[in-house]
Amino acid sequence: MRRLVIVSNRVADPGRGQASGGLAVCIFDALRVHGGMWFGWNGEIVADEAKIGTAFVKHDSCTLVTMPLTERDYREYFLGFSNEVLWPVHHYRLDLARFTLEAAEGYRRVNARFAEKLSPIVNRSDLIWVHDYHLIPLGTGLRARGVGNEIGFFFHIPFPPPEVLSATPEHEWLMSSLLEYDLVGFQTRSDHANFCRFICDFMGGEITAPDTLCVAGKYLRASVFPVGIDVESFVAMARSPEAEKRIHRTRWQAEPGLSVIGVDRLDYSKGLPEKFRAFRRLLEMYPDKSKPASLIQIASPTRDDLEAYIAIRQELETLSGAINGQFGDFDWTPARYIHRAVERDTLAALYRASRIGLVTPLRDGMNLVAKEYVAAQDDADPGVLILSRFAGAAEDLQEALIVNPYDIDEVAHAMRRAIEMTKEERIVRHQALMGRVRQHDACNWMLSFLRALSSCREQLAGNVCERSVRRRDADQRRGSLVAFPGHSSASNSMGKLITGTKFGGGSTSLT
Ligand code: ADP
Fold it and tell me: How far apart are CA 18 and CA 40, in angstroms?
C-alpha cells in the first residue's frame, strides 16, 4: 500500500480526547485505519522564524511531523487571510471579510514554508492529501520544488457560487493554484457545481467528462466525497455503561420537559443566536409554565482573538440569560449554555439523552454533529434530528426535519413537531438516517478519496480538451497571456505556468 501523507494547517494532539473540529476528528479516523504521515502546525508560537524546525513523533500507525508558527504567521496567515478572508467568504459572509496586504503575504509565506519543509521528506510513491482552505496554494509550492506525486486537495468548507467567491481579492490566483492538484474534493454536489461553474465561466475551462475539467490544456479531476464519522466507535461510546452513568449524573436529566441539545464551535456560521431565538419562540408557543423542553448548548471556544467571535459570545451570553430570566423557575433552567469543549464520550452520552438534536448552521461544509447525534441514538426510542438546509449534511440526511435556520418560526415549529412526534415515526426516520450515516462514514470518505486520487492519472490519460487546446494554441501564436474573462491580463501574483500557458488575471487591489 502506498504511504499516505496528510497535510493540514493544524496537527492535533492524539493524546487529547476532545479534538473539537470536524477536520481533526476525520483525520484521526483516517490515519487510524490507513497509517502514514500527518504534517502541519503543532499549535505553538515562536518568537522568530529562525527557531522553526520540524519535529517527528511516532504515534501508533502514523508519524506526526510538526512545526511551530511565528506570532506574525499566526496573525497574518491564520487569523488574517485564512479566517478573516477565506472563512467568511466561503461561508457567504462577505460583510465579515477583512482583507489586508500583510495577511495575503503571510498566507503566501506560510504556504511556501510548508512546501519547503515538506518536499524533502516526501517519498516518490507517496499519495499526498492536502486539507482545507489554509493551504490552497500548497500544491503550487510543492510542484515548484519538483514534487511530481499525485496530490489531492479537499475543501472541508463550502465552496460558494462564483459571484460570491470573486469578492475575495486574489481569487484568480487562488483558483489557478487549485489546478496544480490532480484531484479536488468537495463535501456536496452544490459545492462541486459552484466550482465547475467557476472553472467554466470565469476561467474559460470546460467539463470534458464526468468529474473531469480542463483549463488551458491542463486536466483536473473534481468530485464529491461527503465527510463522515467513525460510526461504530460513536455507537459504542453512546451505549457504554459509563455513558449511562454520565447521563444519570447530570442534574439536567431531572429537569421537566424534553431535552434539546446543540453542540457547535462558537462560530458565527453556526447560527447560534438564531437557534436561541427559535428556542425562545418555542417556549412562547406553550401555555404558561408547561415547560416543554430544556436546551443545552455546548459551544467550544474557537478563534477567540477575532472580533466577530468575541461579539457572538457576548450575544449568546445575553440571550441565554434573557431566556432564563423570562421563563426559568425554581426547578427549571430552560437554556444552559456551556462555553467549553467536552470529552467525546460525554458528548455521545448527552446526544443519546436528548430527544432533539438541534443543528442549525447558517452555512456549513458538512456538519459532523448531525451525524454523531444520529449515531448515538437508541434504535428503539430515538430522538429527532432538526437540521439546517444550509448544512452540507442536509444533502444526504433528508429524513431529518429540514429547516431554514433564518426562519425562527419554522425552527420553533420543527421543535414542536419533534416533541409531539410518535415513537413509530421517530424510529422510521432514524432507521433511514442511520443507513445514510453508515453509508458515508469516515472510512468510506477516506477510501473513496484515496482511490480516486491514486487512479486520477490513469483516468485522465488520453483525454483531449479540444476547446482549451485550441485556445492555448491560439494564445501561444499570439504570444499572449490567457486571461480570466472579464479581467485585465496583467500577470497574477504567482505568474504560474500551466502547460506552457501563463495564467493572467487582474492582480486585484489588496486593500
Ligand atoms: P466544524 O468542523 O465546523 O467544527 P463539525 O460539526 O463538522 O463542525 O465538526 C465538529 C466536531 O467537533 C464534531 O466532531 C463535534 O463532536 C466536535 N465538537 C464540537 N463542539 C464540541 C465541544 N464543545 N466539545 C467537544 N467536541 C466538540
Answer: 19
Question: Residue 83 contacts by C-beta under 8 Å, 6 or more apart in sequence?
Answer: 303, 306
Determine contact, residues 308/96, Cβ cutoff 8 Å: yes
Please answer whether residues 19 and 50 qualify as being in contact, where contact means their C-beta atoms are separated by less than 8 angstroms.
no
**Measured CA distances, 507 to 98, 176, 288, 396, 490 (Å):** 18, 13, 61, 39, 7
Return the pLDDT at 468: 55
Which residue do the cell numbers 454520565 mark?
246
Give me the DSSP letters along 209-255.
ETTEEEETTEEEEEEE------HHHHHHHHHSHHHHHHHHH-GGGGS
Q: Which of 344, 348, 424 is nearest to 384 (CA)?
A: 424
Residue 336 scores a pLDDT above 80: yes
- Site to substitute for ligand 1 among 10, 20, 233, 270, most atoms within 8 A of C-beta: 20
pLDDT tens for each residue of 18-61: 444 555 666 766 677 667 899 999 999 998 888 888 999 988 78
Instruction: Give the separation between CA 90 and CA 18, rounded to whole angstroms.
Output: 26
DSSP string covering 295-327, please? EEEEEE---TTSHHHHHHHHHHHHHHHHHHHHH
Q: What pLDDT is attached to residue 465?
A: 59
- Report d(CA 383, CA 428) in Å as an integer: 11
**Residue 495 pLDDT class (50, 70, 90 cuts):** very low
Does residue 454's CB lie within 6 angstroms of at least one atom of ligand 1? no
Are 296 and 354 in contact, with CB atoms under 8 Å apart?
yes
Half-sphere exposure of 237 (CA within 13 A, CB side): 21
Atom of ligand 1 nearest to the CA of 302: 4
- Which residues are known to be catalytic? 156, 364
CA–CA gap between residue 254 and residue 260 (Å, rounded): 14
The CA–CA distances, whole Å, from 95 to 36, 164, 217, 268, 308 equal: 40, 11, 37, 12, 11
Is residue 345 within 8 A of residue 233, CB to CB? The reply is no
AA identity, residue 232:
E
Cα-to-centroid distance, 376 and ligand 1 (Å) = 15
Phi, psi of 17 (to 5 degrees): -70, -20
CA–CA separation, 371 and 363 (whole Å): 16
- Is 165 close to ligand 1, i.e. is its CB under 6 Å away? no
Mean pLDDT computed over 133-157: 97
